[in-house]
Structure formats: C-alpha cells, structure tokens
Amino acid sequence: MANLVTLSEQDLQPVNQYLESRTPYEILEWSIKVFPRIGILTSGQKAGSILCKLVYKSGHKLDLVFSDTGVLFQETYDTMEQIRNSYGLPLKRYAPKLSMEEQTRLHGVLYISHAGQEKCCHMRKVEPLLELHQDYDALLGPLRRGEGGARSKVPIVSMDTSMKLIRINPMATISNEDYETLALEQDTIINPLHEQGFPTIGCNRCTTPVRPDERPRAGRWRHLSGVDYCGINPTDVSHQSQTISIEEAIVLRLRQTVLSAI
Predict the structure, then answer these.
(1) Contact by Cβ (8 Å): 71, 205
(2) What end-to-end distance do the CA atoms of the chain give, in Å?
C-alpha cells in the first residue's frame, strides 16, 4: 500500500505560481507526469469538449469521467458519444443510485426549492463521484477565469476534499478570445445546444435558453434566485483552507516542480 501524506492548499501555492505562465498544453503534459492516475471530468459542454480535444491532440488516452445524472439533454449524451468515438477516449459513466423517478417518490420534487436543489445536485452529480480517489489521483477540468463570477479567480491546481483528489484546470488562464478560437477549430466537437441559446448546459429540469441581454448563467436554475452552481466544482462554492491525504510520491513530484523553477 502506498505511503500517504497530508497535502494542504498552501503547499499548492508555489505549484500554481510555477504553472501560471504555462500554456494549456504545457500544464496538461505536467499533469500527466505528476499524476499517473488522471482523468478528464467533463459534462458535455463546450469548455469540456475543448479540453478533450487538447488531450486528444496531445496524443494521450485519458478516461472521460462523466457524471451522468440521468436527466441530461439527449444532445449532451450524443456529444459525449461523439467525443468518445472521434477522439478515442474511454468514457466512464458515473450514475446516481436512484433514478429521477425513484428519487421523486422518496424525496419529492427537490429541484423546486433552494434546499432541495442543493440536495438534488449533490445526490445526482456529486455522490456518484465520491469514490473516484480509488481510481484517480487527479482530474482535469475545464474551468476558466474568463467565465467570471466565482470562477474569475479559479486556481490552476486545487484540491477536492470531498473526492479526496487534486483538480487541475489547464485552461484557467486563457483569454476568452483564445478560448473561442479553439472552439471554432474544425476538429472541436461542440454540443449543438450551444447554438440554440444555451451558453451553459446542465440537467434538462433546470436549464433553459437565455436571451442576448441576459448573463450567460441566467438559464441555470432560472426558477431559483441566487443559484449559479451545482457544487460539483469545490472552487465554485468554497475557498477555505483544506487538506487531503495523497501518495507521498506525488507530493515529491510536486516539490520537484517548484525546485526546478528556482
């Protein structure tokens, strides 16, 4: 059994400083060297599609970690299948224990209240991923500072104490212009809902199109004021100092990253 040591967010600060000026491809290559067991967390949206394409073009075959809530749009399922088939990336689906019908029988229609929405998102999106640390040390994610809001200061590398692993956002620092350039490249597979008025896409119960004069996330939980995020990304909802236990060999590689920059 691997020797585990404690890693804190403070330990990640010099690593983030080292990566701040690196390109998404450089961050991707660094991530794969440091974390032998690494996957891509994606939900079938544009940013995740771009990230999958970057991995594909880099020549790596990383797993697509897909939180399948069971109530996504058909276009999202079709997009994930297309990414799997076109990029040759293994698709790993993680589903909640209860179907939406079973959940509703037991708990009622949760997503129509603030407290219920938090419970529903946790049950359907977060809980299926809580044992990922058994298979992965880190997950690549598509978050960008250019999205604004709570993500305007998203770190490149952070920790997820619920999943007990490291989260890495290779595209965190790229500009909106560079992001759109990547999206327009011919080999980028884009969820067709983005062209139908959906800047951001979640479950079919809680996602609507938005008007041109609305903010991009206005279509998420439109029926609930003040809700912007589902909680699957800890940096969306919390910036508290945290720690996780992780393999000592990984911590040594993180330290070597910092030493190599001195």
Answers:
(1) yes
(2) 33
120 among known catalytic residues: no
202: nearest Cα among 120, 83, 91: 120
- Of 120, 121, 203, 230, the catalytic one is 230
- Global pTM reads 0.94
Residues 90, 80, 164, 234, Cα dihedral to 10°? 160
- pLDDT tens across the length of the chain (262 residues): 679 999 998 999 999 999 999 999 999 999 999 999 999 999 999 999 999 999 999 999 999 999 999 999 999 999 999 999 999 999 999 999 999 999 999 999 999 999 999 999 999 999 999 999 999 999 999 999 999 888 899 999 999 999 999 999 999 999 999 999 999 998 999 999 999 999 999 999 999 999 999 999 999 999 998 898 898 988 887 666 689 999 999 999 999 988 876 5
Q: Decide if 5 contacts 251 (C-beta within 8 A).
A: yes
Any idea which residue has 């290559």 for tokens? 29
